[in-house]
Amino acid sequence: MKKAQELHYKMLNLIKAMFIETNPIPVKTAMALMKMCDPEIRLPMCEMLPENKEKLVRAMKEYRLI
Predict the structure, then answer these.
(1) Contact 32, 56 (CB under 8 A)
(2) pLDDT at 62
(3) Cα dihedral sign, 66-54-42-45
(4) Mutual angle of helices 50-62 and 25-33, in 10-degree steps
(5) pLDDT per residue over 11-44, tens digit each?
(6) Which end of the chain has fewer CB atoms < 10 Å from its terminal CB, N or C?
(7) CA distances from 54 to 40, 47, 59, 62 (A)
(8) Which ranges of the chain does DSSP label H, i.e. alpha helix?
(9) In the prediction, which pLDDT does 34 show?
(10) What torsion, rounded to 10 degrees, do the Cα atoms 11, 12, 16, 18 define?
(11) Phi and psi at residue 8, in whole multiples of 5°?
């Protein structure tokens, strides 16, 4: 239980960033940033707000994902 709690708090900033907007928009954006998919977003999804994308990028850099 203690190890799970440590991992949870270690990943909390990334988790919050992944849910800053309606899913799957942050997931698709994160995958595109990691070059795992095309960055094109089709309706009904829309691009993340610039300030939220900035938070996502910051969190991903913190965890060395990009």
Answers:
(1) no
(2) 95
(3) positive
(4) 60
(5) 999 999 999 999 899 999 999 999 999 999 889 8
(6) N
(7) 18, 12, 9, 12
(8) 2-18, 25-33, 50-62
(9) 97
(10) 10
(11) -60, -50
Give the end-to-end CA distance of the chain in Å, rounded to a whole number.
30
pLDDT band at 3 (very low <50, low <70, confident <90, very high): very high
* Residue type present at position 13: N
Identify residue 47 by its one-letter amino acid code.
E
Dist. CA 6–CA 28, nearest whole Å: 27
Neighbours of 28 (CB within 10 A): 20
